[in-house]
UniProtKB/TrEMBL annotation:
Keywords: Membrane, Transmembrane, Transmembrane helix. Belongs to the EamA transporter family. The chain crosses the membrane at residues 33-56, 62-82, 89-109, 115-134, 141-162, 174-193, 214-232, 238-259, 266-283. It holds the Pfam family EamA. InterPro entries: EamA_dom, EmrE-like. Residues 145-282 form the EamA domain. One of its GO terms (cellular component) is membrane. The keyword Protease does not apply. It comes from the Bacteria. This is Membrane protein. Gene3D superfamilies: 1.10.3730.20.
Amino acid sequence: MFPLVLAAVSAGVWGTADYVGGRATRRIDAFRVAVLSKLFSVPLLAVYLTLLPVAFPGRSVAWGLAAGGAGMAALITFYRALASGAMAVVAPVSAVTAAVLPFGAGLVAGERPGLWAIVGVLCAVAAIGLVSMAPSTGRATMSLVGLALLSGVGFGLFFVLLDRAAAAAGGDAGLWPIAFSQSGALLVGFFLWERHRRAAGRTPSQRPAGILKLIALSGMLDMTANALYLLAVRDGMLSIVAPLASLYPVSTVLLALALDRERVRPVQVAGLGLAVAALVLVAS
């Protein structure tokens, strides 16, 4: 039961991080937001590692680096797809793919959740797709759908690879896999950012202090959600924990409703109801 609670909380924290980071990307480009948010989260990660000290798990380094690299590449790909304005297609395709991939990976690995848990996961997948839908101002093309799928695969791989990082340690790895993941994310992020900067032919612009605060908050929330997910998947089944953690669009939508006065569409209300049903079924 406790892993399910951690997974649900991680989804809420991830969604909050996405909301805060999304506000920052309205004023500076997504590459800088993605990379700087990871940098700002490093001091908090050091605190977490100190509070949960364990022996250095060398066997999980490669898995953690791969998880972070996949997650960062997915995030930047997702932002590129969203830049088209076709959010009604991009967001649901990406989010649902991110939930389905680890669910399948868990089943292939031999996990056998109960019937009601499986029904709950299916409700969660449907809820993610419905909640993520938003009015679209752009035209969806096959290339955009491809980018959305690619980002979803990257997010799904992050869930799977972080699970493997915890398992590779052969016991309690603490939060070291998150440290490795953050390192992988920064390596890939700096590489992609530099490529983007050179292709655009621009030098970095000034970053207002208010934006830096948003980026820092987004990074610390994102890293905290990563840690909660790791603790959840360490003691729970990947096929159940990852889809629950993928419910992060729910908190993003609720924050937009409460703080930005955005209107929730009927399809999103249905998604919120399915999300509640998913939590109840999985916990039953």
